[in-house]
């Protein structure tokens, strides 16, 4: 799978031609990044049942970078991603999407930001069963009242090798095809950031490899920013950077990770 030349990538290009690749570190504040958080705390429950899922996290993800978030079970990966993506609200701290402070937005505006500026990719493909593949892909645009860019749509679906399957419903597609439809849906709006939660978790290894290559290519060729939560060191090795979490805090980072380096880091964290 190769990645088409994109139509327009206003966000990824202008301010940071280096794509943030060399400058991002896990302890810098949120501003100036595609997405990030400052002093993020997330507390669930109260009293004896209280859990501090995030315990003062400072993190920035550079534009045009493919980042993986890893760590032992319960370390706060999903919580961090959900807070960054505006799916959950931190107890305190600030979440930035570009120059927008998500934590300062009222619910309605946050919904619009999620719809218009963020792409989502989950382990379960979350396609609507009654819609065709094409209708599923175009849904975010439809909800936004935006007209599809047919050329862009054609390029994405060609690159993902699903052009022949667009009239089919999800139940008529393989798991790998369904996930590729979900990828097309995540990219169709030209989002500033794609958040992916275990995107290869439900795929066979060949489909998973294809998907990771595509995501990698979208970063390389389109300047897409991708933030992925994964348990899989091989999946993480496709990223430019791995951020390690432990007990709700940043435990380290690995630039240009190999699966062995990730495995060793996780072993040290007890994951
Ligand atoms: N809605 C919730 N209510 C109460 N506690 C929660 C809730 N969501 C998460 N937690 C707790 O917060 C901590 C962090 O959870 P989180 O799901 O972010 O971890 P994770 O690193 O993604 O874990 P895993 O790898 O198992 O998916 C855990 O102790 C979890 O039990």
Automatic annotation (TrEMBL):
Domain ABC transporter: 38-266
Stored InterPro entries: AAA+_ATPase, ABC_transporter-like_ATP-bd, ABC_transporter-like_CS, ABC_transpr_LolD-like, MacB-like_ATP-bd, P-loop_NTPase
Example GO molecular function: transmembrane transporter activity
Organism of this sequence: Actinopolyspora biskrensis
Stored Pfam families: ABC_tran
GO cellular component: membrane protein complex; plasma membrane
Keywords, sorted A to Z: ATP-binding, Nucleotide-binding, Transport
Superkingdom: Bacteria
Keyword Nucleotide-binding appears in the UniProt entry: yes
Keyword Transport: yes
Record's protein name: Putative ABC transport system ATP-binding protein
Region (Disordered): 1-30
């Amino acid at each position: 799978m190769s990645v088409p030349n994109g139509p327009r990538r206003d966000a990824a290009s202008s301010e940071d031609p280096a794509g943030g690749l060399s400058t991002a570190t896990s302890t810098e504040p949120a501003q100036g990044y595609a997405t990030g958080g400052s002093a993020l705390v997330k507390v669930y429950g109260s009293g004896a049942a209280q859990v501090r899922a995030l315990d003062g996290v400072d993190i920035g993800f550079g534009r045009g970078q493919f980042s993986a978030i890893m760590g032992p079970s319960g370390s706060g990966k999903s919580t961090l991603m959900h807070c960054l993506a505006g799916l959950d609200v931190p107890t305190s701290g600030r979440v930035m999407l570009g120059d927008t402070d998500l934590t300062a937005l009222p619910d309605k505006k946050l919904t619009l930001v999620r719809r218009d500026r963020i792409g989502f990719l989950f382990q379960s493909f979350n396609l609507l069963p009654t819609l065709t593949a094409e209708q599923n892909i175009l849904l975010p645009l439809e909800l936004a009242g935006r007209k599809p860019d047919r050329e862009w749509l054609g390029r994405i679906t060609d690159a993902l090798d699903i052009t022949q399957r667009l009239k089919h419903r999800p139940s008529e597609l393989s798991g790998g095809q369904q996930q590729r439809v979900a990828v097309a849906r995540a990219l169709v709006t030209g989002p500033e950031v794609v958040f992916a939660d275990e995107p290869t978790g439900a795929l066979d290894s060949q489909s998973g490899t294809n998907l990771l290559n595509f995501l990698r290519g979208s970063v390389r060729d389109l300047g897409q920013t991708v933030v992925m939560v994964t348990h899989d060191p091989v999946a993480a090795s496709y990223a430019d950077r791995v951020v390690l979490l432990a007990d709700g805090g940043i435990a380290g980072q690995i630039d240009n990770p190999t699966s062995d380096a990730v495995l060793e880091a996780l072993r040290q964290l007890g994951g």
